[in-house]
Amino acid sequence: MxxxxxxxxxxxxxxxxxxxRAWMENNxxxxxxxxxxxxxxxxxxxxxxxxxxxxxxxxxxxxFVGVEWPAAYGGGGRGPGHQRIVSQEMSRAGVPFLINLVGxxxxxxxxxxYGTEAQKKRYIAKILRADEIWCQGxxxxxxxxxxxxxxxxxxxxxxxWIVNGHKVWTxxxxxxxxxxxxxxxxxxxxKHAGISYFLSPMKTEGVEVAPLTKITGEGxxxxxxxxxxxxxxxxxxxxxxxGWEIALxxxxxxxxxxxxxxxxxxxxxxxxxxxxxLARTTRRDGGTCIDEPEVRDRLxxxxxxxxxxxxxxxxxRIPGLVADRPLALPLMSKVAGTEYAQAVADFGCELQGYxxxxxKGDTAAVAEGEWQRAYLNSYAGTIAGGxxxxxxxxxxxxVLGLPKTK
Length: 406
Known about the structure:
Blueprint: H1 10-26, H2 46-61, H3 82-93, H4 101-114, H5 117-128, E1 134-137, E2 153-157, E3 160-167, E4 178-184, E5 195-201, E6 207-211, E7 222-232, E8 236-237, H6 243-254, H7 272-281, E9 283-284, E10 287-288, H8 293-316, H9 319-322, H10 328-351, H11 370-383, H12 388-399
Parallel strand pairs: 1-4
Antiparallel strand pairs: 2-3, 3-7, 4-5, 5-8, 6-7, 9-10
Helix pairs in contact: 1-3, 4-5, 4-6, 7-8, 7-10, 8-10, 10-11, 10-12
């Protein structure tokens, strides 16, 4: 990760932005003959996977993935601010997202923070180039959002770990080579103390993947069953029983409360700019929607929300403004950002009138049904990384010091 003690150099960053912008504009990949998923959570088919994996490898080979991670492990070794510029220019150019988000944003940073030298050399470069795809084994059917209640067990047997249990909502699980896995290693300890953190190979006998189908008709999520799966002893990250601490560090990256990701984002969103374009082209009652005062009022509200989110992101990067409550802005942005995306997608469907009820694939659907797809997919954002209700509880209890929920 970038050395935070190094200051951003505006001149250097400006020149770097021009370099990244030129590359993205000149290297836009050709549109595939099939529909791409709207985000990493929704990768469904082998052809989508291969296309997106090849794209990440190209971006890495050009030097734009892991820009701030140590060069010794395959990163670019640059200072703060460079990776953010790459993300901004990728969004500006409208190029595909980076598929290995779990590796780039969650697994990689905690391996750099807690891993041995051998683990860093083993995993980091392959994460950056998407040579190994990662998934996350945190959620369980019976634990819900109470992560520390997980029941998957790992038992040491000589120089191996034997794992039994069941994980669910595992994005990219069908394609993954590695999993960041939480398992209980001491059932007698308190529920937070008896958990360990593993870097587990997915192509192992005893690991079974069962894809799930979402309300959109797409795949993307999976169930993972472990039946006497044997993992090597050196896949333990940190110390035995240190899993809860590392899990919280992982979640801080997932929720945007810590910087250090090597690039990537959740994928395309339909923002207020797209909603304005839709309002300009959608006609009803003899005019266009953009001419209706109520529509204009709603759009202005979304524009204000979007501006507030952008300014909050900028403010979060100024240490002096967040030192007293470092968790507050990132967690607020997680809730507000995902709910903003959901509200805008809902509004886009509403603008279409009866056509808003048509599914993707219907020949009469507006914009090929992408707004409806975005609205249904938006619920993944308000659940992943902690539901909005869980994050609001954390804000209330950990940030504002309110009494715990009973």
